[in-house]
């Protein structure tokens, strides 16, 4: 079997089956379970790495399920009826983000979760969420997009609410699940409408068929509604602070990666499926939602007293920056000026930066909660005396998210500010205002929790948790110090996949 | 004209479900509203694949010149039903846990997370 | 090593060199100070209020004026976060209506 050729489907299948096998291994003993998780994680990470390497060096990788040869996308009649996986640079980047989040989350969970508190189930749900995210990132078929959307929804809500002995976790999970399901049903309705109209589900095939009829537009609206909810844009972000605030820390970092993957799905729909229609109204809608998101979420973060919920609103506001950057690119897609590409690159670079920095913050909050036994900002204080490393990591993540040079958030925000300034100066002014608010929020959180005289006697943070945070902190520093290399070699191909890559994508799937 | 009746019924079901989601405070009824939307969408999927006078799409037993209904929407609907089962079970489980903690299923009392 | 953004550029290493220069300047000033001072000797400079041992400006009090100034705007936003699942779905329907308006009428 040619591993390189089959890597995309194996990258989805291995964590899916491996995740379901995890509880079985746990029956035979916990060391066996941990060994199995290590094996599955290592295998999946190498497969995703292999796919990403092939995509970045050799272009879009297409895999057809049920065909005699993986690249036979067309059935004998010349019609693309088979299920297709198509990975381009953006999909590979998002897959890498999901993989990074999963690996760091598992390393953190080793000591963060207690055995009697459902550790096996949490690890299983995490692996399934990982598989669903990879599926969403790699699929080239609309119905499979819906299926993986629901796989991630179910796994994510399980992760949010599995701690049934708390009352807040299940509450957050119920609300999130209701919204995810309604959004998913809108997406399914859109897919049904498209199938009724064109009799096709293949994304590339549909992209060639769409002509901008009323049905196409209704479908676009339904898809947009469902996916904007899933990425957590204001005002349909309400589930996000609940979910991020209440899920255990190793799950939150996966949830954050899940929103990035949903953003990818949104961009894939807007740029590839509907890229031929090039309606600036949609671009302006995305820009407006992005600006609203970053403003409202950072304002809400100012008054929060719960450390987890405060960081959660910070995470929602970062989604606004990505929507703003990519929305600017979408608005000017017809004329393609240079600043559109700049904003697009900034938005995609920010996805990477956000996954690292907000993940670091959430892991630090989890460490604080475990060590100090609470996270009310009014009661915390002086933790920096004992939790030196956690304090340093929190500080680093906060500065990176607030966009303080020389950390990575500054580079991507600079690109977004410049790109949006050339579209409309008021946008970049509002974005900078939100950044200032966020800096105040994070300084307040850091001062309240870590500085001041010693008030509590926290337990030491286990070294595996520190190691997981350290990996993310290293990423923040490296991306901050070498932004040009990352943008040139990692982000630019991914941005080109949206900016000019539509025809390349369609040709890669059709083979002509 | 009469051929469009299934589609109209689907949309009515979706709107009914949405109304339940918007105006019913009981969490179980919210889940029921979701199921109604889902059934509307599933019905729509099946209806798109119907062919007038079509037979079951099983090649072996079909008469030689009969029209078949489309098999793909049926496969999609089956998948969607299974997914719906999983989501409904999960949501009802959460509703049970919420009831255990709060002693109530009134959505207005399940607002610990707000503001 | 420089990230060009079309109208400007960003080079973290250059920035770090500048930061190192400023730090060196600070160290230079510091080294010119009095060497015979020991911490805790003599009167502490008076800033304001009274000194309470173990006092901590908690997270709820820091930026108090800043937060109070923003409160009228934020309270309205907080009022929208009701926590009712029906309202969450309501916002989704509102957004869907806006998207429909833009897609069908604006396009």
What this model shows, in words?
The complex is a heterotrimer of chains A (512), B (115) and C (107). By secondary structure, chain A is mainly alpha-helical. Chain A is 77% helix and 2% strand. Chain A has 19 helices and two strands. Chain A has helices at residues 3-28, 30-58, 89-112, 119-138, 142-161, 168-198, 203-209, 214-231, 239-246, 249-273, 280-302, 307-331, 338-372, 388-402, 408-423, 425-450, 463-481, 483-499, 502-510, and strands at 61-64, 84-87. Chain A has a two-stranded antiparallel ribbon. The longest helix of chain A has 35 residues, at 338-372. The two termini of chain A are 26 Å apart. The model of chain A has no long low-confidence stretch (mean pLDDT 90). Chain B is 63% helix and 0% strand. Chain B is built from three helices and no strands. Chain B is elongated and about 65 Å long. Chain C has 107 residues and is mostly helical. Chain C has a domain at 83-107. In chain C, a hairpin with a 4-residue loop joins β1 (3-4) and β2. Chain C is flat, with a radius of gyration of 27 Å. The model of chain C has no long low-confidence stretch (mean pLDDT 82). At the A-C interface, α6, α8, α9, α11 and α13 of A face α1, α2 and α3 of C.
Structural key phrases:
heterotrimer; A: 512 residues; mainly alpha; two-stranded antiparallel ribbon; 2 strands; 77% helix; 2% strand; B: 115 residues; Helix Hairpins; 63% helix; elongated
End-to-end CA span of chain B: 50 Å
Major beta sheet, strand line-up of chain C = 1-2
Helix content of chain B: 55-70%
Radius of gyration of chain B: 19 Å
The ordered H/E elements of chain B are HHH
Tell me the structural class of chain C: mainly alpha
* Contiguous runs where pLDDT drops below 50 for at least 5 residues of chain C: none
Helix content of chain C: 55-70%
Q: What's the total helix number of chain C?
A: 3
Tally the beta strands of chain B. 0
Which class do the helix and strand fractions of chain B yield?
A: mainly alpha
Shape of chain B: elongated
Secondary structure topology:
The complex is a heterotrimer of chains A (512), B (115) and C (107).
Chain A: H1 3-28, H2 30-58, E1 61-64, E2 84-87, H3 89-112, H4 119-138, H5 142-161, H6 168-198, H7 203-209, H8 214-231, H9 239-246, H10 249-273, H11 280-302, H12 307-331, H13 338-372, H14 388-402, H15 408-423, H16 425-450, H17 463-481, H18 483-499, H19 502-510
Antiparallel strand pairs in A: 1-2
Helix pairs in contact in A: 1-2, 1-4, 2-3, 2-4, 3-4, 3-10, 3-13, 3-17, 3-18, 4-5, 4-10, 5-6, 5-10, 6-8, 6-9, 7-19, 8-10, 9-12, 10-12, 10-13, 11-12, 11-16, 12-13, 12-15, 12-16, 13-14, 13-15, 13-17, 13-18, 14-16, 14-17, 15-16, 15-17
Chain B: H1 5-23, H2 27-48, H3 71-102
Helix pairs in contact in B: 1-2, 2-3
Chain C: E1 3-4, E2 9-10, H1 12-31, H2 64-80, H3 85-106
Antiparallel strand pairs in C: 1-2
């Amino acid at each position: 079997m040619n591993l390189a050729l089959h890597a995309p489907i194996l990258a989805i299948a291995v964590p899916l089956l491996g995740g379901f096998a995890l509880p079985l291994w746990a029956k035979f003993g916990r060391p066996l379970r941990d060994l199995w998780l290590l094996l599955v994680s290592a295998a999946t990470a190498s497969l995703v790495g292999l796919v990403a390497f092939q995509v970045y060096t050799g272009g879009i990788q297409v895999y057809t399920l049920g065909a005699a040869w993986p690249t036979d996308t067309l059935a004998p009649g010349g019609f693309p009826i088979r299920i297709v996986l198509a990975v381009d640079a953006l999909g590979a980047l998002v897959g890498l983000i999901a993989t990074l989040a999963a690996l760091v989350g598992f390393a953190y969970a080793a000591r963060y979760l207690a055995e009697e508190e459902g550790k096996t189930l949490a690890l299983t749900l995490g692996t399934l969420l990982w598989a669903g995210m990879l599926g969403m990132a790699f699929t080239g078929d609309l119905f499979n997009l819906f299926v993986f959307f629901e796989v991630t929804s179910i796994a994510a809500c399980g992760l949010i609410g599995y701690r049934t002995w708390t009352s807040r976790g299940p509450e957050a999970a119920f609300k999130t699940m209701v919204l995810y399901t309604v959004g998913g049903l809108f997406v399914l309705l859109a897919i049904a409408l498209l199938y009724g109209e064109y009799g096709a589900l293949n994304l590339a095939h549909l992209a060639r068929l769409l002509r901008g009829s009323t049905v196409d537009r209704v479908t676009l609206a339904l898809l947009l509604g469902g996916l904007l909810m899933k990425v957590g844009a204001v005002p349909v972000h309400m589930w996000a602070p609940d979910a991020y605030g209440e899920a255990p820390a190793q799950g939150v970092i996966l949830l954050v990666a899940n929103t990035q993957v949903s953003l990818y799905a949104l961009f894939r729909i807007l740029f590839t499926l509907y890229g031929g229609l090039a309606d600036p109204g949609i671009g302006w809608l995305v820009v407006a939602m992005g600006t609203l998101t970053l403003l409202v979420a950072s304002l809400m973060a100012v008054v929060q007293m719960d450390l987890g919920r405060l960081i959660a609103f910070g995470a929602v506001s970062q989604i606004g920056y990505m929507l703003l950057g990519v929305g600017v690119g979408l608005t000017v897609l017809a004329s393609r000026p240079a600043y559109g590409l700049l904003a697009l690159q900034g938005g995609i670079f920010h996805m990477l930066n956000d996954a690292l920095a907000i993940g670091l913050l959430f892991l630090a909050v989890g460490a604080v909660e475990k060590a100090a036994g609470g996270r009310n900002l009014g009661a915390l204080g002086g933790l920096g005396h004992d939790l030196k490393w956690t304090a340093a990591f929190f500080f680093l993540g906060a500065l990176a998210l607030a966009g303080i040079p020389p950390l990575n958030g500054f580079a991507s925000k600079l690109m977004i500010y410049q790109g949006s300034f050339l579209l409309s100066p008021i946008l970049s002014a509002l974005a900078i205002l939100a950044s200032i608010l966020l800096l105040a929020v994070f300084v307040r959180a850091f001062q309240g929790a870590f500085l001041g005289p010693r008030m509590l006697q926290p337990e030491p943070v286990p070294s595996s948790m520190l190691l997981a945070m350290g990996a993310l902190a290293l990423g923040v520093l490296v991306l901050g110090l070498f932004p040009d290399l990352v943008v040139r070699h990692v982000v630019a191909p991914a941005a080109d996949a949206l900016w000019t890559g539509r025809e390349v994508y369609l040709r890669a799937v059709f083979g002509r | 004209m009469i051929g469009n009746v299934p589609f109209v019924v689907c949309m009515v079901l979706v709107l009914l479900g949405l109304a339940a989601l918007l105006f019913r405070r009981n969490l179980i009824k919210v889940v029921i509203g979701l199921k109604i939307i889902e059934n509307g969408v599933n019905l729509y999927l099946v209806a798109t694949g119907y062919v007038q006078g079509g037979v079951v799409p099983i090649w072996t037993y079909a008469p030689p010149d009969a029209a078949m209904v489309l098999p793909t929407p049926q496969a999609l609907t089956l998948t969607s039903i299974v997914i719906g089962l999983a989501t409904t079970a999960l949501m009802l489980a959460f509703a049970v846990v919420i009831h255990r903690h709060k002693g109530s299923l009134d959505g207005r009392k399940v607002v610990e997370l707000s503001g | 090593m420089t990230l060009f953004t079309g109208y400007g550029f960003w080079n973290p290493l250059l920035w770090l060199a500048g930061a190192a220069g400023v730090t060196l300047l600070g160290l230079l000033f510091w080294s010119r100070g009095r060497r015979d001072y020991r911490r805790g000797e003599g009167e502490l400079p008076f800033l304001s209020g009274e000194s309470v041992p173990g006092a901590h400006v908690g997270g709820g009090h820091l930026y108090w004026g800043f937060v109070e100034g923003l409160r009228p705007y934020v309270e309205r936003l907080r009022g929208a976060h009701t926590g009712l699942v029906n309202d969450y779905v309501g916002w989704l329907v509102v957004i869907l209506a806006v998207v429909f308006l833009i897609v069908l009428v604006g396009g």
